[in-house]
């Protein structure tokens, strides 16, 4: 499914041309030199703005302009929502379909369960040994609960062998699933990159859509969102969240949990994110909405 077939190219071009013309007109109005009389003004600005609003409302073509702007905004919203859905659904479907229908059968066919490696890393082996010790202790505990009659060593060994066989089968399946995840993830990432490369015009519309939403929020809403994101990703409790995420990714790919790498990542990456947030606030938000920055500082203190 090509994105070019999903999106209407004529609507995209007309939407972008209208957005571009509106931005050019706004920049020309903002950059137009004003005289001293225009700066001071004979009448108050409130009266002038009221007169201008009445002039626009009495204009016969005002209704057509409002409808045209509404249709342009509607097309931009539809294009943005479709692109976001495609960016989420296409990689997810690629992962599930490729894993279950293509990669899974190939791995199961060429990877002999009897001769394949049971443990992909040493942590899996340690977990299996720990599970075996727990099973042995559980058997002894259950034997004490059953009227105090202790099981014989032969009976315990027999049940323990059955449990070890189950543990081995579980870890073989986990290792095989990790191998499938690696190849399926590569295909899903490739589908995501391909979708980005084929949707450059839609990405431009999506950027304008998000800019309109973000910069159209109130100052308190902007400050609330900034504080929420910074506290979640670079706040005091964020290292625990990053540790859980990295551990889950390691298990998903069948990699050992390298604690040195995890600690190094936690010590550097949140700091980099915090620097990026502060630079964005200083460089862009402070210029576009200084009142939002003031609200953010008051809420953060």
From TrEMBL:
The keyword Phosphoprotein does not apply. InterPro entries: CemA. Residues 1-41 are annotated as: Disordered. This is Proton extrusion protein PxcA. One of its GO terms (cellular component) is plasma membrane. Residues 26-39 have a biased composition (Basic and acidic residues). Belongs to the CemA family. The chain crosses the membrane at residues 78-97, 178-197, 223-242, 262-281. It is found in: Cell inner membrane; Membrane. GO terms for molecular function: proton transmembrane transporter activity. Keywords: Cell inner membrane, Cell membrane, Hydrogen ion transport, Ion transport, Membrane, Transmembrane, Transmembrane helix, Transport. It is a multi-pass membrane protein. It comes from Chroococcidiopsis thermalis (strain PCC 7203). Pfam families: CemA. The keyword Glycosyltransferase does not apply. Required for H(+) efflux immediately after light irradiation to form a rapid H(+) concentration gradient across the thylakoid membranes. Together with PxcL, contributes to transient H(+) uptake following dark to light transition.
């Amino acid at each position: 499914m090509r994105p070019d077939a999903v999106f209407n190219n004529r609507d995209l071009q007309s939407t972008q041309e209208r957005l571009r013309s509106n931005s050019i007109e706004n920049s020309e109005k903002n950059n137009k030199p004003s005289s001293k009389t225009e700066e001071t003004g004979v009448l108050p600005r409130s009266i002038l703005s009221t007169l201008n609003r009445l002039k626009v409302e009495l204009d016969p073509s005002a209704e057509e302009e409002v409808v045209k702007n509404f249709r342009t905004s509607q097309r931009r919203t539809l294009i943005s929502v479709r692109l976001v859905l495609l960016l989420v659904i296409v990689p997810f479907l690629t992962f599930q379909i490729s894993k279950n229908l293509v990669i899974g059968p190939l791995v199961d066919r060429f990877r002999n369960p009897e001769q394949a490696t049971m443990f992909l890393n040493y942590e899996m082996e340690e977990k299996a040994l720990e599970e075996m010790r727990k099973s042995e202790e559980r058997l002894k505990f259950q034997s004490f609960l059953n009227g105090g009659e202790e099981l014989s060593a032969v009976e315990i060994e027999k049940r323990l062998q059955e449990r070890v066989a189950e543990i081995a089968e579980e870890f073989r399946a986990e290792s095989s699933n990790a191998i499938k995840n690696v190849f399926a993830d590569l295909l899903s990432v490739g589908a995501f990159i391909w979708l980005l490369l084929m949707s450059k015009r839609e990405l431009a519309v999506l950027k304008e859509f998000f800019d309109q939403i973000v910069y159209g929020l109130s100052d308190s809403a902007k400050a609330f969102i900034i504080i929420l994101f910074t506290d979640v990703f670079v706040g005091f409790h964020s290292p625990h969240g990053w540790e859980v995420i990295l551990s889950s990714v390691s298990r998903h790919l069948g990699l050992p949990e390298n604690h040195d790498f995890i600690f190094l990542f936690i010590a550097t990456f949140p700091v980099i994110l915090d620097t990026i947030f502060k630079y964005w606030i200083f460089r862009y938000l402070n210029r576009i909405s200084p009142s939002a920055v003031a609200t953010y500082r008051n809420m953060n203190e």
